[in-house]
């Protein structure tokens, strides 16, 4: 984590920027250029990490250094975002004074919804990562010698997991769809309904699926992706997971004759305002325990929450949002589309809580940037105009003067200052961002 | 494969012996002695492979070399049994002349049912190894960005697999329990019903399970283990398996945010006389395809038979069995228990077919030998008396003279002489014995 600050003028607003400079591996064989060398082809710059998240971080630096800074700036450049933000909360907590007076956090780690129109991200889903484990006999057994006479953990597990999702992809857990805010999509829909930036057919083609389970219209598809909770079974395998009771260091490596003594399933849940993580976990626990009890099995079940990350939501009357919109409009000549994302960025809500300031997200990359994939790229125009948007936004903020806008006056930061042991901070950040850097 | 022959006297019977000298790895931390050094502690010899299958092979060699051999002997010592018997059928087919005139195949690669009474194994289950694969989107997708709008392969797979096994472990596939011979247990039960060599409580304790799904009496438990077909789900994981359409070299390594584009489940089926492998595969295929069709998913399903191994069964009127019983009785002073095994030894039925002779199995090790596990051992008494049993058996056979007993007169061997490409030979042997050397 690189932490820095430029300016301590109490008469100027203070802005904190977050970006990350680490990248995903680049083992995909489809790279056409050296992934660790910056290559310019036609309108695009190619290289691992150019869109996620080096370009935005670079644009910020370039935007900030043009002439005398009109605001105080603090910044955090992280190098572990793709690997769980390990130590991040610890580093922030030990250096809180560097961010003194922060009135706004700017993050640029999301994407446009399409190719041509700049966007402002105003909400993201929250996430829960859970492991369901079933443990049985004392050791792995032989399917020939002993198959057929006892309840096998893998069979129990798949019978329990199969009850989670029903036809049409509907999650069958009591309470799963409770407390969903129906109006989450309104702001995005106002700007997207007449736009060609997102189409049903284009989205299906990008996914590479012949059909969707979401209703076949643009609005309902966006509502499902952005505004409704979802549940994906992301893994099942034999063996006990690391860190759980009965663990082995590695899941059992099995072949056809081995009945594993334990089996684990991994579930990724995304939830939305105003759902509560603890309440959802209770619903899930209740569901899997009841499903398991119905089997009458002699095995044991265990549900473990590996990570939780809060949904993130801008206060829609926020003057910061209006300022960002104005900066984008001045630079690009068009009003940005307001968009949400289905992923989660635990860093956003975490920094809001510890720095007692709201965050805004200004995406720079296009939806076709291939973040994390082969031939990751960013359009040159986006990079250069992005730099100017940052500059313009800082000038807008400077013009506003030193009074905070939309700052959470009641936030003291003190409740969050424990550097370790708070499940909602370090542990969450660690596990929650371990997989997909762009947006969990 | 080491192939040899002693004696070509056409007036003497010819016996072929099969044993394997390779072993499983010995990575278990619980070894009390060096697993690759022979150690004698109290009544036992300890070391990796002592029971599976070096002791029996050694006993054969020792039994055969005492004085002038009363029979012609051919032998096969294999070094790839624990690793799929790769090249085995090829080696046999190229050297068939070494086994000319074989009237009996002797194998000693099974176990006693208990600790004190020698056994004769007269039947083993057959096996089918199958992979069910479901493929969906063109690439892995992000559970945050795209979760909730399309049919996920892993969810489809577990919903299909969950229909395989119902309550009490009953397999729910139409036709799965057809053509089962109800009298398979009779011979074993006659000798076991009043014996204390096998008990319900001892078996549960050995497995380390608090309860069994099989009916709670000794006979039904043995019927279920030995005489009824079973189905175990031995693996489920994301990614496409190697060697299947849409394969990747490795299954996808996933974490909580990744929805895998494909998922695979592995199933181990054991079947019994007089069930037919092809018919069972048809039942399985029909079942998974119908279950999948009921989901209305846009994904694709594929069922692949990875290996099949025939059940093995002695002709119960066989004079060879009577001779083996007599040899055991003379040496141990007790009549052996007749037992079956739930596992499969594809080598047995394979050699019967290519050498046109029946096989018998004379187990030497006790049920507590820990084959494949830490502290594998064999009782010294079993080893020395086993050697004598072999010697006595060869003498019994010599006394019988040169006329074959129970030989399949109609077998020409020619139908089986294709060294490669026969699914029931090399390919089966290869995959079928890949996992558990003692008995698949």
Alpha-carbon distance between the termini of chain A? 19 Å
CATH homologous superfamily assignment of the largest domain in chain A? Zn peptidases
Average pLDDT over all residues of chain A = 87
**Largest protein-protein interface:** A-B, 82 and 81 residues
Please describe the biggest sheet of chain A, giving its number of strands, its sense, and whether it closes into a barrel.
5 strands, mixed
What structural category do the secondary elements of chain A indicate?
alpha/beta
Rg on CA atoms of chain A, Å: 23 Å
Beta-strand proportion of chain A? 15-25%
- The CATH class of the largest domain in chain A is Alpha Beta
Please give the domain count of chain A: 3
Low-confidence stretches of chain A: 245-253, 405-410, 412-440
Question: What does it look like?
Answer:
The structure is a homodimer of 440-residue chains. With 440 residues, the first copy, chain A, is of the alpha/beta class. Chain A has three domains: 2-124 and 311-432, 3-Layer(aba) Sandwich (Aminopeptidase), CATH 3.40.630.10; 126-180 and 228-309, Alpha-Beta Plaits (2-Layer Sandwich); 181-219, no CATH class. The first copy, chain A, is 31% helix and 21% strand. Chain A contains twelve helices and 17 strands. Chain A has helices at 50-65, 88-94, 143-146, 153-161, 186-192, 200-207, 218-227, 277-295, 319-332, 346-355, 380-400, 423-432; strands spanning 2-6, 14-20, 39-41, 44-46, 72-78, 102-107, 119-124, 126-135, 141-142, 230-238, 258-259, 262-271, 300-309, 312-313, 337-341, 359-361, 377-379. Chain A has a five-stranded mixed β-sheet with strand order 1-5-2-6-16, with helices on both faces. In chain A, strands 10-12-8-13 form a four-stranded antiparallel β-sheet. In chain A, a hairpin with a 2-residue loop joins strand 3 and strand 4. In chain A, helix 1 (50-65) crosses helix 11, helix 4 (153-161) packs across helix 8 and helix 9 (319-332) packs across helix 11 (380-400). The longest helix of chain A is centred in the C-terminal third of the chain and has 21 residues, at 380-400. The radius of gyration of chain A is 23 Å and the shape is elongated. The model of chain A is unreliable at 245-253, 405-410 and 412-440 (pLDDT under 50). Chains A and B meet through strand 9, helix 3, helix 4, helix 7 and strand 10 of A and strand 9, helix 3, helix 4, helix 7 and strand 10 of B.
